[in-house]
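Q: A reviewer asked whether we had any structural model of the full assembly, not just the individual parts. We don't, so I'm hoping you can provide one. Inputs are below.
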Amino acid sequence: QQQVKQSPQSLIVQKGGISIINCAYENTAFDYFPWYQQFPGKGPALLIAIRPDVSEKKEGRFTISFNKSAKQFSLHIMDSQPGDSATYFCAARRRGAQKLVFGQGTRLTINP
Amino acid sequence: GAVVSQHPSRVICKSGTSVKIECRSLDFQATTMFWYRQFPKKSLMLMATSNEGSKATYEQGVEKDKFLINHASLTLSTLTVTSAHPEDSSFYICSARFQGANQPQHFGDGTRLSIL
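A: Here is a predicted structure for the entire assembly that you could use as a starting point for your response.
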């Protein structure tokens, strides 16, 4: 059972463009939604996270949009750069739980 | 800078040996640490959740006797792959969570384990 569904599996964007990665969930008990960035041979690094009491959170070029009624959240990378090329994972955690549930990952390639 | 340190970053050993991987939280106390396994081009698969001073909670399908986890202090957890075989070759990643509610989870840089 895939609790967090992530799409697309891979994405190619031109330099300067907007990269958009989407995630959907079913469990309404989830109350914490982080995004991680992973480069080859490295562990995931926390990029940005959001809780369901807000609809949007922005940190630099990275923005999370959250739609509670649709049970969807997305990551937007503005002015995408070649250095943003990496695999991105969305995740979710239930209220009071310890572990994260991860999406399948999106391999993002930014062409120069 | 890195908040979770994992060592070694890469290890190659012969089949049948045991391998220990260390995970340390830097500058914070982690009551909970997690161990993941990641196959190429795949998502992270949680193996176990480790709480300081108590036995680890293993996910379904993970062999407790194969993957020994010890969390003896608030800053150190270890994963020992016992009697390793080629099918145990993988990328193992630990993570730690700050003490307290609503805290994020930070990951180490992983250990590439290759069993010959």
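A: Points you may want to mention in the reply: DSSP finds no helices and eleven strands in chain A. Chain A touches chain B through 19 residues (CB under 8 Å).
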